Amino acid sequence: MCGIFGYSGEKECNDLIFEGLKRLEYRGYDSWGIAILNGKIHQYKNIGEIKYDKMLQKLQKGNIGIGHTRWATHGGVTKINAHPHISEVGGFTLVQNGIVENFNELKSSLLKKDVHFVSETDTEVIVRLIELELLKNKSLRQAIITVFKKLKGRNTIALLSNNDKKIYAVRNGSPLVLGIATDGIYIASDTLSFSPATNEAVLLDDFDMVEIGGKNISIFNIESNQFKPVKIKKLKHQFNKIDKGNFKHFMLKEIVDQKETILFATKYLRKELLPLTDSIKKGGRVYVIGAGTAGFSAGQIAYFLRNIANIDAQEVKSYEFEQYISIVKKKDILIAISQSGETADTIEAIEAFKKKGCKIASLVNMYGTTISRLSDFEFYTNSGPEICVASTKVFTAQCAWGYLLTMTLDNRFEEGKKNLSILTKSISQIFLKSRLENIKRVANKLKNKEHAFILGKGENSYIALEGALKIKEISYKHVEGFAAGELKHGVIALIEKGTPVLSIIPSENSRDFNDMISAVEQVKARGALTVGIGNDKSSKREIFDFYINVSQVENVSSIANVIPFQLISYYLSVALGNNIDKPRNLAKSVTVK
Ligand code: F6R
């Protein structure tokens, strides 16, 4: 969702801000804008894709400026509603990330004072409130502090002042970090956007107000009313290039990256996992939380913990934590799963578990993010940037890390590592040309269907849910995943001649094999088009119209079983001509509730 990027320093920053916004694109946006200071504020705003046009080329050059990607919340997708929003009084312009929850109340009180609005946004309310404070002869600093304290919700703002030649920014909830480079200071919603320039970052806390003038920074916490030392953190990783290589879309590149990323997520040494496993052994129940795809990997991790290491583990959707919070005890442990590390629903759940006194562990892909910083035990999937909005490589990385954690708890760390390396080899086979052609054939079969169903059981029940989400997100087809046992209790009513049913078939010695086969027999008897995903040496191969071969590695092949669904989603959506990397209505980083 909305992204903020700014720069102050020695370099001419128009292109830097443009490139920074491009690197924030993955978060999802529908309009964007840039403001540059040079004598006065010069602004450019547009809707749609971030690209150069004549007007942007003509924008006055300068070495201090801010930019923004907007994901519409209040008011439609128009140039007027795009940020930055410029003031009429006080010579400043402002961008915001978040939602002003008391927007209606604040706006009606301003309307009563005859304040005039240009846009429909909640952001403009902040601008007008600051103007009123300035008219009371307050300094800009004081005006920002007074107004910020009036805002309800998770809001982060950045403001470019012509009078002071400074950037002011205040963070609350929505992410904001500083990048410290030799040439100047970067300010952005994530560390990825300035990663080609520096891996030295200052991670701001809620209510930190930063003032950047030239290359100087000061940080003042408006809640504690105190200046803070500028603590620079060296981030482990720096990404110079984000590109698709020879792939047409980031999604396909990221699916193929899975040949390696499972190993990156599980390169942890036993001793690095021990502080968490010791706490789990001594603690109470383990809650594993996440939302969307991360919610399904949370389910898969809890499955591993229960079924391999006999741990009392319960998955909870981040946005449903309130259902459980009354029974949560101090000795319980929370494991939060998130690609972005900034998902508002997950942050809110973590804060509630923290209040209960629980220890928090997290598994995050992006460095320097809020979720890692709220955690007692920080882990990373180390998958590299995931740019396609639909998560692929990070899902399998999350599950693989959960498997290694489980095997460590079961005192089988080495065996876990060995199985993950066998799994990685088996994943490489999925990308053989002949196998990809087979998957494409299945994708083409779905092209003219309105509905499809995915069945899984036990170790594959979360994989079925994630497989369905993946296809829905990009193809916009109605694909439902469910546990095979559910079929006879209702869903079978939907099966008619030609309905595609894709079933994940575990190895023949699995306790779930017979149940899965009997579910397939039942849908086949009603005319379904049957597709199997699993080892094609299965003795029941003949009941399937199509079969996608995935070698089964004991206890862990569920992780590989999701990849055919990712590929079906990709090939189907390419055939439908959809926007692969930025599907409609979706944002990669869901920083608002
Ligand atoms: C789906 C997808 C989303 C995210 C969800 C949580 O492909 O990417 O469902 O999984 O919004 O995001 P993170 O993992 O950043 O917490």
From TrEMBL:
Highest taxon listed in the record's lineage: Bacteria
Pfam families tied to this protein: GATase_6 (PF13522), SIS (PF01380)
InterPro entries: GATase_2_dom, GFAT, GFAT_N, GlmS/AgaS_SIS, GlmS/FrlB_SIS, Ntn_hydrolases_N, SIS_dom, SIS_dom_sf
Protein name per UniProt: Glutamine--fructose-6-phosphate aminotransferase [isomerizing]
Species in which this protein is naturally found: Candidatus Dojkabacteria bacterium
Gene assigned in the entry: glmS
Catalytic activity: D-fructose 6-phosphate + L-glutamine = D-glucosamine 6-phosphate + L-glutamate
Keywords: Aminotransferase, Glutamine amidotransferase, Repeat, Transferase
GO biological process, one term: fructose 6-phosphate metabolic process
The Glutamine amidotransferase type-2 domain, residue ranges: 2-215
